[in-house]
Design the sequence.
């Protein structure tokens, strides 16, 4: 997200309003920028959110009066949600590739574990990557997530998910279920492994990691 925000700042925000002093920014300035990107509605919305956060901080730091954020009340463009549900055949191909990758050691075992848990639990990928063993309740067959996007919550698990967690190798020195390359750390990025596995399973490139939890 930091890289994406930096690109939005350099490519769109600075060329448009970069020379305007922070206290002088008006709603008309923001509306003009947002409207100029009507051919890129999602990008325009991301820019509006980014500017709103920046100008909230400007108020906090004393560069603008409280409650003066010019991004307020500017309606965002309508966005169509992108959701993809894998078919039974696609899931079978994916499962076969995961087994092959596991057997050959092509992908990290932790990446394969994470992908399987995403499919079986419906959790967000950030929740799975940061999952700690102390959050796994084997007796009640659930995950007690302490820091999910929506706050703490309980995720009840299927027998398949429980079997997967019980069979998972456990490093007593690492509190995380999906271990990373560094000691006592979790895996931080699934994208590279997912892109390769998705291609080997002949899945459409539009399928994101996030779509696994929908399925």
Sequence:
């Amino acid at each position: 997200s930091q890289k994406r925000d930096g690109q939005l700042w350099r490519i769109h925000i600075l060329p448009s309003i970069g020379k305007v002093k922070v206290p002088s920014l008006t709603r008309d300035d923001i509306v003009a920028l947002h409207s100029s990107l009507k051919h890129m509605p999602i990008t325009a919305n991301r820019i509006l959110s980014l500017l709103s956060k920046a100008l909230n901080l400007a108020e906090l730091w004393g560069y603008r009066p409280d409650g003066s954020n010019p991004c307020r009340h500017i309606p965002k463009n309508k966005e169509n949600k992108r959701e993809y549900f894998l078919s039974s055949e696609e899931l079978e191909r994916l499962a076969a590739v995961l087994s092959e990758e596991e057997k050959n050691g092509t992908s990290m075992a932790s990446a394969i574990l994470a992908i399987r848990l995403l499919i079986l639990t419906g959790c967000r990928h950030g929740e799975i990557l940061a999952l700690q063993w102390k959050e796994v309740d084997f007796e009640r067959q659930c995950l007690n997530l302490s820091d999910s996007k929506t706050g703490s919550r309980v995720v009840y698990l299927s027998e398949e998910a429980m079997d997967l967690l019980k069979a998972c190798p456990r490093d007593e020195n690492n509190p995380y279920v999906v271990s990373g390359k560094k000691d006592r750390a979790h895996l931080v990025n699934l994208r590279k492994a997912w892109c390769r596995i998705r291609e080997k399973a002949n899945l459409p490139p539009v399928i994101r990691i996030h779509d696994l939890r929908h399925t």
Summary: Strands lie at 136-137, 142-148, 151-156. The radius of gyration is 22 Å. The chain has nine helices and three strands.
